[in-house]
Amino acid sequence: MNTELLPHLVPGRACGTCMMCCKVPYIKEFEKPAGVWCKHAVAGKGCGIYESRPSSCRAFYCMWMQDGAREGADQGRFVFVRIGPRMIAVLPDRDLDIGRVDPEDNIMVARKPGPAGVTYEVEVRSPDGAKRNPG
User: Which of 1, 67, 107, 123 is at 20 to 30 A from 135, Cα to Cα?
Assistant: First the structure.
């Protein structure tokens, strides 16, 4: 097995209840588009076919399981998905393409109360602290 192709998983982390893996990736075996809930997702429980899930599902690891995610992702608030050099933030209120994010950049997510409920704001900062606009 070629371990160079496997993502680096953070020791001690395990999947929680966010179920974003049932929404975020394209699943070729089911022709499920990216960003759409899988027909096998069971609210509050996870994958209804977990033991027999296809290889596309088995190959997907969110940033919580990898090195990029910190507080919040484990509680189902948001997930980051890297597509090449670009990053997509899957937030409860929307999906946001935050553009190019380098490995040394910091991504901050803030919850803000609003008239229609909680919204989420995303900020990307370079290592020198300079703020970059998402997108």
Answer: 67
Would 40 be classed as within a structural domain? yes
Round to whole Å and give the CA distance between 48 and 132. 40
Rounded CA-CA distance 37/40 in Å is: 8
Query: What's the pLDDT tens digit per position in 35-71?
Result: 788 999 887 788 899 999 999 888 888 777 776 555 4
How many domains is the chain built from? 2
Predicted pLDDT of residue 129? 85
- By the 8 A CB rule, do 101 and 85 touch? yes
Nearest to 80 by CA among 51, 122, 132: 122
Its pTM stands at 0.53
Whole-number Å distance between alpha carbons of 69 and 51: 26
Cα 52 to Cα 69: distance, rounded to the nearest angstrom: 27
